[in-house]
Amino acid sequence: MSTPREAPESDGRNRARSGSLSSNVPRLLVRAEEMPDVLGISQDTFHKYVKPFVPIVRCGSLLLYRLADLDRWAEQNSERLLEGGR
């Protein structure tokens, strides 16, 4: 099982919602709009290549993603380049 990681810096909305929780608290879930930043990709790339393959967690109208599912997606989609760059 993967270890929870810290999500990227946000615009402060999380801090207001989480009350007194420190930003150093590891997160298990990230909001949908944070996903491209977490993965280091564009919104378009996320919507085309990642979103269809990673399950969501609904909390009312809020869509969340588990970091463990992102790790699994990355592992399933990783490949090793052969010597010679092919």
Features:
alpha+beta, three-stranded antiparallel β-sheet
What does this structure look like?
- The chain has a domain at 28-76.
- With 86 residues, the protein is an alpha+beta fold.
- It has a three-stranded antiparallel β-sheet.
- The chain contains four helices and three strands, in the order αβααββα.
- It starts with 12 loop residues before the first helix and ends in a 10-residue tail after the last helix.
Brief rundown of the structure:
The protein has 86 residues and is an alpha+beta fold. It has helices spanning 13-18, 35-39, 43-50, 67-76, and strands at residues 29-31, 57-59, 62-66. The protein has a domain at 28-76.
List strands and helices in order, with pairings.
Elements: H1 13-18, E1 29-31, H2 35-39, H3 43-50, E2 57-59, E3 62-66, H4 67-76
Antiparallel strand pairs: 1-3, 2-3
Q: How many DSSP-defined strands? A: 3
Q: What share of the residues does DSSP label as strand, in percent?
A: 5-15%
Using the alpha-carbon principal axes, give the shape. globular
Structural class: alpha+beta
Spatial sequence of strands, sheet with the most strands: 1-3-2
Count of separate DSSP helical elements: 4
**Could you give the distance between the termini?**
31 Å
The low-pLDDT segments are none
C-alpha-based Rg, rounded? 15 Å
Range of helix content: 25-40%
